[in-house]
Amino acid sequence: MNHAGVTNHDSVVFVYTGGRVPEHLRERITHAIIDKSVSVIDEYAFQDCPKLQSVACHKGVEIIRKCAFMSCNGLRVLNLPGVKHIETWAFKKCRRLFQVIFGEKLERIERMSFTGCRMLRHITIPLNEGMAIGGSLYLNIESVWLVEGIRKLIASLHFERWTRRMEMEMNEIHRRTVPCARGKSKTSVINEWMSSMIHLLKHFKAEHCIVVNEAMTLLELALWKAKLDESHKEPKRKRAKIDSGIIRKERRVTCGADIIIKNVLPVLQLD
């Protein structure tokens, strides 16, 4: 059951467990906590909560329904770490909303979801192929940032020149959106930039895998050679002559390369 707790004369914290905020609390709520049991914020859930300043949204919240936060004029910053889908008019007329931070799971933002959010300037988004974002989100945007996981991935690329190239492309969006390219909407400019980033990242990830696989092959050969060199230093023993091919095969099996590669390769590969 939804419930509110008054923390002082000016603040009312509301724990949301589903449905709509009771009418008698809409004018009072200042902070909302989404309960761990909630994965969907329902239609009109927080509509017309003018004093609502913050929403503590956990990673299990995946869908925000139509008009869920419409006309919540006190909201300034939103952190939506697990949200996949935002429906039409979800944040319509949140006139003071300034920044929205999405997580890596974002898949779709419907058109008109952020209509009337005239102060929205900064967004953080992932790079997911096929991700669809409605144009109203970009209308007044000045800066676009990538989620932390993407930035870490770029920093871990094998060659520094690859990382620099990706960082240059990542920063290019700020030049393109402020001011926006003549004759193009911000939506088309940002979508083009995202497509370029995804293409470039896929290219460098593929190149990275080739380099890593080549390095693993060289490592295996080096370990195998070391084991063979070690066998040549062993004292001669009186025993039946053994085929050299069998010895080489045995050394390859016992050189430890398979253990090292099994444990090292996953660390070097990119997700």
Automatic annotation (TrEMBL):
It holds the Pfam family LRR_5. Gene3D superfamilies: Ribonuclease Inhibitor (3.80.10.10). It comes from the Eukaryota. This is Uncharacterized protein. It comes from Skeletonema marinoi.
